[in-house]
Amino acid sequence: MPSPPSARPSTLDPKSAKAHTDLGAALRAQGKVDEAIASYRKAFDLDPKSAKAHNNLGYALEAQGKLDEAIACYRSSIELDPQSAWAHNSLGSALGKKGWDLANSPDPKLRDPKRAVEASTEAVELAPQSILAWQYLGWVQYRAGNSKASIEALENSCKLEKGGDCGQWIVMSLAHGKLATEKELPEQERDRHKTEARRWYDQAVKQIDSGVAGGDPVGQAIRAFRAEAAKLLEVKEKQN
Fold it and tell me: Among residues 179, 182, 181, 168, which one has the least CA distance to residue 225?
């Protein structure tokens, strides 16, 4: 079995931006994020036009939860290499997360629905084939009170995923549930939304209960949505 690569190869050229970028990748893979960041910064000190160094620094900063700094790095990477698909995808993913943070911050003072929608919309413009970017946009539109726009975004996410999963379905349930409460809608239309709300809820819950939604931030959000949907639809859930 081959031994793992050395974090600091003896052949490292201290004046090579590429060598420092590669070293940063090796360090990040080993979980040494602070050292990786230092190596990436050294790389673009040596070569300020290194799009890869900026993008990789963004990955490392995002891993530390420094989302705004990561977004700035991804933007710099795109300025340096406008045709880079991975830089656009990196920025799209980060903006999707940023939009969700702005829409759903635990601190109400930090919530900004308008900026949340703007960030999430830019995310899908940058990465139109990203399942998660469309999902985040759907979540954000729901939190912003735009149920129809939420359903549209989540349907796009489902199409890209060829059917979707509980991450889209549970919020589609909520969005349809909210539309069903709009008194100005014709009764037939409100009944349709009620039916759709319960259909998506039952489909989502079945998958959630199978253990699909884990303990990561996305999984936690899905479980919170599930509780919210149960309350909105007046579903009496079984107690464990």
Answer: 168
CATH number at residue 76: 1.25.40.10
58 belongs to a structural domain: yes
Contact 170, 135 (CB under 8 A): no
First-to-last C-alpha distance (Å) of the chain: 46
Name the 3-class secondary structure at 213: coil
Within a 10 A sphere around the Cβ of 149, how many other Cβ atoms? 18
Q: How far apart are CA 136 and CA 87, in angstroms?
A: 19
| 88, 127 contact by CB (below 8 A) | yes
The number of distinct structural domains making up the chain is 1
127, two tokens? 């990465």
Query: pLDDT tens for residues 142-165?
Result: 999 999 999 999 999 999 999 999
Asked if residue 59 is part of any domain, the answer here is yes
Is 227 within a domain? no
